[in-house]
Queue: 2 jobs
Job 1
Amino acid sequence: MTRLLMKGTDAIGEAAVRAGCRYFFGYPITPQSELTHYLARRLPEVGGLYLQAESEVASINMVYGAAGAGARVMTASSGPGISLMQEGFSYMAGAELPCVAVNLMRGGPGLGNIAPSQADYFQATKGGGHGDYHMIVLAPNSVQEILDYTQKAFDLADQYRNPVMVMADGIMAQMMEPVELEEERNIELPAKPWAATGMAYHQGRNVINSCYVIPEEMEVVNLRLEKKYQQIRQNEPLCDSYLLEGAEIVLVAFGTASRLCRSVVDKARQRGIPVGMIRPITLWPFPYDFIEDIAGRVKWMLAVEMNMGQMQEDVQLAVKGKIPVYHYGRLGGMVPVARDILEEVVKLYNGGALR
Amino acid sequence: MKKVFTRPKTLKDVAYHYCPGCTHGIAHRLIAEVIDELGIQNTTIGMTSVGCSVFTMEYFDMDMVQASHGRAPAVATGIKRVLPDRIIFTYQGDGDLAAIGTGEFVHAAARGENITVIFINNAVYGMTGGQMAPTTLMGQVTKTTPFGRSKEVNGFPVKVCEMLTPLEGAAYLARVSVHSPKSIIQAKKVIKKSFEVQMEGLGFSLVEVLSTCPTNWGLSPLESVKWLEDNMIPYYPLGEFKKPGVLA
């Protein structure tokens, strides 16, 4: 175990390498670019390949090919580039190919700006591309978690043969924090007997495909995928909580916003306001059950997000109308200030929302 | 009795969906014969594209990967970089390659990606019902150029081989046709060469195959081969546009 100071983008890259990922296909975009700088140096050291594609569209299709050939592979981008990859995610979900995609979210819509944001929540968790499919979405909130969950993302992708997204933002990407880095291990990658590697290398004939012209056949595939998604919903929801004991009010936040909310909880408690926090780590599958359970014993929840209230809808679904779910957000690349969130909490606590 | 003619090993014994007189079947057969002759059926992975060619995954007896519209060269790049010792080819129509896929095939060529692209040019979108393709000839009537392709509205047809010729990464570029027995024999030689270029690791190879689409041209199969010969070949001259030094 080594303790060292590490930057978010380097942590994503190092985690990928340690997870056995040897291929990265991508296209420059801020604030993702520093990850590609790291991997362009690091991957050749381990016999891997960093290839700069002509576009995000080409990147995700190179990822599709590499995944189809059985490799652990990843790409990364920011909002506008992730939008261009949506078709590819849909194809990969349809063809049941594993990959890891990192979205370092920035202000939008449109070209927006390069400042930190959480406004791609809907895109990541509600489909983004066409057709009935889901991506597993992980939202770390520290450099240590970036290391841990990026590695986990590769395992989940292989286990479920499905694309997995790691979502963060420019703050997480640029931030340096101390991390515990485990010794590099030789990891055993799972066998992929389904991969298209040439018939000399496996039994029978392998076809990587998402095209089912006959509706009856497509429906069978849809049902098979849904069964898998149901399994993921049951087994994989992850969330963290803070000071829920005795809480009457719960803040719900992920990623960067959750770091601010933690200090809001502390400050509110100092003032005698019984606040706690729930932090979804998997945004899909969303931890509905955990939040519903907590909703039974608190007065209201406040979704704090760097968007117009996207995760708020999932919190509302989770509480099933039992309690109000409010929203506080900053937009366009603006980051909430702990003091302002606290003010919102105090206002709501004093009945402000009812006025 | 001695068998003198049979189905190539690399083609599956299934019914094809192609319309009567369509030359996709000939192109498939040539590719399969070449793969048989080179003994690479078990080490080759084919990319299908979107359009009539999507069903090639059901026809070639080998590992196949279905790519989204236009992206087959990017998908092929991903596979080839992971498995550099396998033979990778894409099979793409003119809409797929020369319209929506322009970025992917041009950059695969520019990178010198060691893959083979078989490009079927029949001057029309087939699967979607006969719309104008980037390779539709001037004046040609299609569903979306009912008064004929005009330079004012539609601009000019794309000459893919000529366009790639200046790129250093493009090792082998050739245009063939499958409208006559003679041209078919020539086409097979060229397709074989394109695979050999890849096996030698010489870089990107592309064979443009002029083909017919009787259904969407509104012509009989016989009229179609005549139309190809009279109209397509003058605009899209046959021949090898670029050869690696060792082949020249």
Job 2
Amino acid sequence: MGKNNIFKLLLFYVFVILFVGIIVLPFFWQFMTSIKPISEIAAIPAKWIPSYLHGEFYKNVFTKHPFGRYLLNSAFVASTTTVLSILIGASAAYALARLRFKGKKFMLMAILSISMFPTIATLSPIYLLLKELHLINKYAGLVIPYITFALPLTIWLLTNFFSQLPKGFEEAAEIDGCSRMGIFFRIMLPLIKPAIFSVALIVFINAWNEYIYALTFMTNDLMRTVPVGIALFPSNYELPWGDMAAGSVVVTVPLIIMVLIFQKKIIAGLTAGGIKE
Amino acid sequence: MSDSANPLSDIKLKEAIMGKKMKKHNSMISTEARDAWLMMAPALIILLIVAVYPIIRSFWLSLHEMILTDPGSGYPFIGLKNYIKIFQDRKAVNSIIFTLKFTITTVSLELLIGFAAALIMNKAFRGKGLVRAAILIPWAIPTTVSALMWKFIYNDQYGLFNDVLYRLGVIDSYKAWLSTSDGSFMALVITDVWKTAPYMALLILAGLQMVSESLYESAKIDGAGVVKRFYYITLPMVKNTVIVALLFRTLDAFRVFDLISVMTGGANKTESIAIYSYKNLMKFLDFGYGSALAVLIFIVVFIISLIYMKVLGDKLTDMEG
């Protein structure tokens, strides 16, 4: 029995290490590529560990390309999107979860079905709309569509969290003479703060990673976001593997740190939508 | 008041109080409904202008001949001609076949691997937190970044893929994976599965953790084997979680764009409908035909959702507080 269990445990850890290893290997390889000298990137057979540290690709990322600007653009667009969609979404979610009105179920279904709209199917009309409003190559031109596609998820998740709060909070506050807005801002919002944080993380990551809209609505190189900027590193003349590797490390490291710190929060948000018994 | 001398007036008094209460209750409900619509208004207005209206306009554009480089045509209404064109256009048909193949392959692999990984990891063990964090990382990075990473891994001369397979003796010479159609398809599938199977595992794991241990214990005592326990306890308990995860993955796979755009650009017969639609819209500026392709994606996605919803029943909206 004892031997059998040890064998099982060993097998289990072999599996876990293999699983995690396959997940991590591409990152490891990319990181190594980013610090290799060019001659060793092109070595056959591949040289896994560089013989000395080579930092030029990191310098290239910020001097040959406006990568700092890409990062700034992404940070601004993603955080504005997050704040606005949480504000707008939480207020709608509160109404859907806590207030009585007709057509609630229909509204929930309608909002959920909007989350299934493929971005490509709204691309050209939004492009024409932004063009008419002179919002191409403007932050607002990206933030507005991003909010739109963050809203269904935000509303859905926050409605879930709001409806889990026990009844009676509002009544007590109403007796104390609080207005509906007062109840929402001073009592309900603080109550679901942890949930809001989870949802905010997911909205932020989604906005940070978005590609089609950013590719289409930001045509000026200085307005590009990270995912598009890095995808356009390769030119007609060269494939700068080292620069691309360094660029992806610069993007990935903050995300890894974020995931390590907030993993529980992110998972809470990710699983809240799907699981409801 | 109960010992009042006049029982009739007592009843009337009660009625009067009740009536007042009812009235107050009614007006409370109506201000409540008004407040609800006010609080939803900002979200609804944005959704109407930037999601619902564009979808309708896409559909409208798809009924026109609208090539932006040819404004002289006056963009005439041509009915369903763009849709008929899809089925006569070899490239469009190929892109539909490719997208279906890609969706079915990736989603089934992701479900299989995700489910297996979740079942194995569904217990307390040392380093679980770290494993969960590792699982989240592929999900958290931009698809364009993971596509670039893997593109270099598949590189015909300097790539890790060739190196590992060669060292393991699986291949006897380096292959140019991204220059054949089978190789490209495999490369895309591996990259997609790498990015999303862990995420699938995570969702299923969360569902598994809601199954109580005592259920398994009592089934064990009743003599149910591993297969029976899986079939009668695990599967029914996580069914909804799995279906929701499958729905989102199927929709994502069917709309695949970022990965292909960066890794192959649609070369070697790897053009998805979304890629082909994008090319028509933004490269050839053929907004009519491009929109028809985009609407086709929308319709298929809609049908897929309906099928899943049917399987799921009303579970999604069972949340009235």
